[in-house]
Amino acid sequence: MHPLFLLSLLLLSCSASALQDDYCVANLKGANTPSGYQCKDPSTVTVDDFVFSGLGVKGNTSNLIKAAVTPAFVAQFPGTNGLGISAARLDLAPGGVVPLHTHPAASELLIVVQGSICAGFITSGSNKVYYKTLKKGDTMLFPQGLLHFQINAGGTNAVALVSFSSPNPGLQITAFALFANSLPSPTVEKVTFLDDYEVKKLKGVLGGTN
C-alpha cells in the first residue's frame, strides 16, 4: 500500500478511537497544549471531575476595576477538556468595569442574573460597535476574538454567568497588554498616539516599566 494511504488509515483509526470515548478528563499534571490536556487515567476519574461549585460564590471586587471573574475553565473544571465548553461568573461592583479585552480561542455568551450591565463589542473590519444596556435575564453574544467590554450600568452589584465555546478561551486585556509591560515608553507612544505623560501615567497605574 502507498505510505500516504497507510497514514490516512492510521489517522482515521485514531479519530474513530477518540470518538468512541465519552470524555477526556484533563490530566492537569501534564502540559496544556493547543489541543488540550492529555486524558486522565479513567480509573482515577470521579464525579467531582464533572462538577464545579465556584459559580455560586461572589468574587472579590476590591480591586482597580471593581470586577471579579471566577473561571470554570479546564484548569479549574477538568471535565470540560476536549468538550468545547467552559463557564465563568462575572461580578461587577458599582462603577465596575471589565476593560476592552479579547478571548482568542472562544466565543462568549453572557447572561445577566443580577443588576444591569452595559456590554458591547467592536467588529474587526469596519470597527462597527454593537452595545446595549442589559437587564436581568438578558443574554448577549460576543464573537470569538473580537474586542468587547462589560460595565456596571447601575448603582448596585451586577452579576452575570458566562459560557465559552472552548475549555480554555484565553484572555488579553487591551489596556494591560499596552501598559502593564516592559515595552519602552517611546515605543508605546508611537503605537498608541499618546503623549509621554499619559503613557507613563498608565504604566504607573497598571504596573508597567520602562
TrEMBL record:
<keyword id="KW-1015">Disulfide bond</keyword>
<feature type="binding site">
    <location>
        <position position="108"/>
    </location>
    <ligand>
        <name>Mn(2+)</name>
    </ligand>
</feature>
<dbReference type="Pfam" id="PF00190">
    <property type="entry name" value="Cupin_1"/>
</dbReference>
<protein>
    <recommendedName>
        <fullName>Germin-like protein</fullName>
    </recommendedName>
</protein>
<keyword id="KW-0464">Manganese</keyword>
<keyword id="KW-0479">Metal-binding</keyword>
<comment type="similarity">
    <text>Belongs to the germin family.</text>
</comment>
<feature type="binding site">
    <location>
        <position position="108"/>
    </location>
    <ligand>
        <name>oxalate</name>
    </ligand>
</feature>
<feature type="domain" description="Cupin type-1">
    <location>
        <begin position="53"/>
        <end position="200"/>
    </location>
</feature>
<feature type="binding site">
    <location>
        <position position="103"/>
    </location>
    <ligand>
        <name>oxalate</name>
    </ligand>
</feature>
<keyword id="KW-0964">Secreted</keyword>
<feature type="disulfide bond">
    <location>
        <begin position="24"/>
        <end position="39"/>
    </location>
</feature>
<dbReference type="InterPro" id="IPR014710">
    <property type="entry name" value="RmlC-like_jellyroll"/>
</dbReference>
<feature type="binding site">
    <location>
        <position position="101"/>
    </location>
    <ligand>
        <name>Mn(2+)</name>
    </ligand>
</feature>
<dbReference type="InterPro" id="IPR006045">
    <property type="entry name" value="Cupin_1"/>
</dbReference>
<feature type="binding site">
    <location>
        <position position="103"/>
    </location>
    <ligand>
        <name>Mn(2+)</name>
    </ligand>
</feature>
<dbReference type="InterPro" id="IPR019780">
    <property type="entry name" value="Germin_Mn-BS"/>
</dbReference>
<feature type="signal peptide">
    <location>
        <begin position="1"/>
        <end position="18"/>
    </location>
</feature>
<dbReference type="GO" id="GO:0048046">
    <property type="term" value="C:apoplast"/>
</dbReference>
<dbReference type="GO" id="GO:0030145">
    <property type="term" value="F:manganese ion binding"/>
</dbReference>
<dbReference type="InterPro" id="IPR001929">
    <property type="entry name" value="Germin"/>
</dbReference>
<keyword id="KW-0732">Signal</keyword>
<feature type="binding site">
    <location>
        <position position="148"/>
    </location>
    <ligand>
        <name>Mn(2+)</name>
    </ligand>
</feature>
<keyword id="KW-0052">Apoplast</keyword>
<comment type="subunit">
    <text>Oligomer (believed to be a pentamer but probably hexamer).</text>
</comment>
<dbReference type="InterPro" id="IPR011051">
    <property type="entry name" value="RmlC_Cupin_sf"/>
</dbReference>
<comment type="function">
    <text>May play a role in plant defense. Probably has no oxalate oxidase activity even if the active site is conserved.</text>
</comment>
